[in-house]
Amino acid sequence: MPYLQLDVPNHYPPEVKRDLARRMGELWAEMMQTTPYLVDVGIRELGEGSVWRCGPGEPEPTAVLTLDIRQGRPPEQRARVAQALLDVCRRALGLRPERFSVEFTQHTGDETYQNILVDGTYHGGFAPDWNPDEGKNTSILDSIPELKSRSTGSSAWP
To answer: At what angle do helices 14-31 and 75-93 cross, to 10 degrees?
Structure first.
């Protein structure tokens, strides 16, 4: 968590998508006070004629960025990151800003399950709820207390 899903009506080279995913993950971690280790980015190229904005007159091609995130950030912070992500995507992919929207879906930590590699072994568990101090840590173990105890020999991840 989070999962940043970008639906676009075009096709792009893999290196363009990889660079965009890296920039989105770094931007997300910086602005949303978390670690980039937890960010997943999906760029879904739905192709010409697959994503439309409806309005007066004929529908027009559009792009949609859906952000599945842990709840807890204030609306102002979410608005800033939405605009920043729109700008990054628009520049990288040549998308028109008036035909590009962002949607947030917020979850508690226990609605996301991930496997994390700790000391050479994978351990699965639910994500912790987000807190503002999360981004201050430099290690994934420091940002998730349940994993920190895992590296000291605890046999279960709550």
So the answer is: 160
